[in-house]
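Anyone? Bumping this.
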Amino acid sequence: MHREPMLEDNNSVVIENLVKQFGDFVAVDRINLKIRKGEVFGFLGPNGAGKSTTIRMLCGLLTPTSGRAQVAGYDVGRQPESVRQNIGYMSQKFSLYNDLKVIENIRLFAGLYSVPANQLKERIEWALEMANLKGQENLITGTLPGGWKQRLALGCAVLHKPPVIFLDEPTSGVDPISRRQFWDLIHHMAEEGVTVFVTTHYMEEAEYCNRLALIFRGEIVALGTPSELKQKSMKGELLLVECEPLGQAVEVLQSAPDVIDAAVFGNALHLVVRDATAAVPQVQKYLSDHRITVGRIEKIRPSLEDVFVSLTTARDSGKERTA
Amino acid sequence: MTDQPQSAIVAEGLTKSFPNVRAVDHLSFDVHAGEIFGLVGPDGAGKTTTLRMLAGIMPPDEGTARVAGCDVVHDPEGAKHHLSYMPQRFGLYEDLTVDENIRFYADLFGVKKAEREDCATQLLQAAGMSEFRKRLAGKLSGGMKQKLGLVCALTHRPKVILLDEPTTGVDPVSRRDFWRILYELAAEGVAILTSTAYLDEAERCHRVALLHQGKLLFCDTPANLKAKLGKGVLSVTSSEPRRLRDQLEHAIGISSLVLTGDGLHIVVDDAARRIPEFEARLNNAHVPFNAIQQVTPTIEDLFVDAVGSGASFHAS
């Protein structure tokens, strides 16, 4: 391994006033972030919000218009080669060659990442061990169950022991047990000092991150741990309302006082209100007055998805959301 | 719940094998008019194969299925008249505009010219896409493409729609829009069968069939499914989640423990008994934590509990 450069205050990723413009369009607008060594960091945002542009800059694939970003101690604008040698990248969909054997995929990635010859054997063993694929070296990758493929893709992405890894929806479509095992692996790597940068649309994956940032229209609109975001970022409190008929209830509640938002959720409604305790009797009366039968009403904990939707729609003043 | 005359989809003992795998294994369920029914399970659970058999484009090895009263094996054309199937990669023409794509599908489905314009206007409005009628489909975002696919699939006003993972890769805001359209369709009496690999999305369905390796694990409403777990679920957050895990992972009474980004999600035998035990343990070890809370089980908890470690394909 090459000499590791000094990290600024033990941060593996440092982003300062980072901007990327395409013509008149500002895709990324002066974002700032610091990610500690060994942190599992989630980067969320709707399609077209500037997520991919940011990641491409952080991976040294796109030069920033202004500002700076440092990854694993290297500047993405001035040392993109060094950045690329010190990161691993894994996306469930595109990482592996399905028609190659397990061992062939590992060798291919070892070659792509220039793993030194004297370390090759040890790294291949390590990857097989980590992915729990010992004895399965000659299976065709395409025939592996989803959970195995995931771990193989991760093994391939970290053959060169990068200090920073980027994961793009790494456990999309995998069964919950394999998913839990995968995230255990990720947390073990993080404990050993690897910094993990995750992008996802799936809040089930976001829950596994130590901290989350939400990017919207090129700006970071929220930053915190999953529970901080659930506590602080909602514009109100959340009520679950069981009532009949649902469709009519949504319509009348749109114009009810104190109701910020009403949406159907399965067999019930989710209401965003300013103060849950005060709203319960009001909502009950309002619905009864409109001849709607009301069942259970209770305050529920917002999910990360509620937070995401609340934060993005609050800023989305009826304008076109995605480009 | 088995209100026969209302059943828009009836699957009985559906089975399909491929050379090395039984993709769908004696699957039975029914979907009523006006219901959103979720086929939920990981990749390889048999969701797509089931939808293809119901759409009349893949014959089952065994079993029968009726869609809108038509047998999909013996009368696939009759069934197709009443149903719409939206596969994972819906065939939008990227170099045609939104309007042109809709017109193309209306032609394919033989929709009368007189009915077409009203239908398109109404559907586009429901999808929040009225302003984008002249835009090329290739220039739409992922979420909008999915919505346009749905609009195209609805031009002939089907009674039954079959959707294969319609929200995969779609961001949460667009996903919510998409579900709003589904609820409106259901309210008009359309039967909707939709698949998803995301267990949290199952909670949006009226009823859910939880699939694993081609077999039906459970079929019920999300609320009843969660009640089936019969165990307590605890949530605890901490500024040092890893220390939290080290203290609790070998504690008595735990059937599963998951380290999340800022805490633990724990399934236990008896919540009332374990909460004080765990809190004492953490206090003794001086691990900082916020009070342990009992929370509603998730469908993932039920899935993991039902399938156990047998689903993990490996020993560790």
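Late reply, but here is one note on the structure posted above: Residues 11-230 of chain A form a domain with the Rossmann fold fold (CATH 3.40.50.300).
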